Amino acid sequence: xxxxxxxxxxxxxxxxxxxxxxxxxxxxxxxxxxxxxxxx
Length: 40
Description:
Elements: H1 8-22, H2 34-39
């Protein structure tokens, strides 16, 4: 049943983690707005 393609939600998690690391966000910091995330 595995198609070999990664699940979409896994890719979203990876991208959010990259943004957290790139922006050096810490615990309690807010994530960028949904609009900014979609622009990236």
